[in-house]
Design brief:
5-stranded antiparallel sheet; globular
């Protein structure tokens, strides 16, 4: 399988664990031959389908069947947010949830899912060999096995590394979360809205959008989720996002400009033009590489609007 050297350089400069880089290129292959997961860093895997995604997300593995879904890196340039890992559903308004806080969690969660689903929670030589490729020990597999035996707790959220520092997808109360992601399906972390993008807000009612209308009724549903006390301008439904981006650039508020283009109202071409514009205000070589990589793949598409 041929590597995309641009992608390799980006991942290396971001300090991504070699195991995850090898996973992206299909050097490490934890999935069986019937799996629909593909390795995004391989040229024949990521150039065959024209599915753009918001540039805050760097896919590692992607499933192009039907509407794409992907696992990957959440990276917010121009902000002070720490990189984490998430799951993007292209068919659900590019909804992006945080599934892992750090790289070790990402590896553990990925293999735990394969261990329970693909390998039926059986520790054998094949499983041991695949675990070894990912730097996982036999003791860790024993923890996996013990966890799968507890039917009510059979998720990665109960792995020791997740319990000590849980990602937002494993959180049930706001006070137990230390990270920077803004929401999951049930909880909004209002203190994180100032560094949040539209695609990271699970319930749009939290940011002032109307409740979805019931498909069997002409009447509006009562809001299920109370709007946040303070909603940043770039998240509000009524703002002109193009004008807002220009305003933020003029005011040297590049973090807000970045968050604005990772939201609705732009074609990929318009996003690409603004990614290139922001290069003038960043000395981060990795951002320049990523902007060019993204624009080369999706920057000419103008028949599609993000939301």
């Amino acid at each position: 399988m041929i590597k995309d050297l641009r992608m390799e350089e980006i991942l290396n400069q971001l300090g991504i664990d070699k195991r995850i880089i090898d996973l992206s290129f299909g050097v490490i292959r934890p999935f069986d031959e019937f799996s629909s997961w593909e390795y995004y860093g391989a040229i024949d895997g990521n150039d065959k389908s024209g599915f753009p995604y918001p540039p805050l997300f760097i896919p590692i593995i992607i499933d192009y069947n039907s509407t794409p879904i992907a696992d990957g890196i959440i990276k917010h340039w121009f902000t002070d947010r720490v990189m984490s890992f998430g799951f993007m559903d292209f068919g659900n308004s590019f909804q992006l949830g945080e599934s892992s806080i750090n790289q070790n969690q990402y590896i553990e969660a990925l293999f735990f899912e394969q261990f329970t689903n693909q390998h039926r929670s059986i520790i054998n030589n094949e499983v041991l060999d695949k675990a070894k490729e990912l730097g996982l020990s036999e003791n860790q597999l024993t923890v996996f096995k013990n966890l799968t035996d507890k039917k009510q707790h059979n998720t990665e959220c109960y792995l020791p590394s997740f319990i000590s520092d849980p990602p937002l997808n494993c959180i049930q109360t706001e006070n137990s979360y230390k990270g920077a992601h803004p929401s999951n399906n049930e909880i909004l972390i209002e203190r994180n809205l100032n560094n949040a993008s539209f695609f990271e807000i699970f319930q749009k009612e939290w940011i002032g959008y109307e409740s979805p209308k019931d498909s069997f009724s002409w009447f509006k549903k009562k809001p299920n989720f109370k709007p946040a006390e303070y909603i940043p301008e770039w998240l509000k439904p009524e703002t002109n996002k193009h004008q807002l981006f220009d305003k933020y650039v003029s005011n040297n508020e590049y973090d807000k400009a970045w968050l604005t283009i990772n939201g609705p109202g732009f074609t990929p071409k318009e996003v690409g033009e603004r990614l290139q514009q922001l290069k003038a205000y960043s000395s981060d070589a990795t951002y320049h590489l990523w902007a060019d990589f993204w624009c080369k793949k999706y920057g000419d598409m103008d028949t599609f609007i993000f939301i």
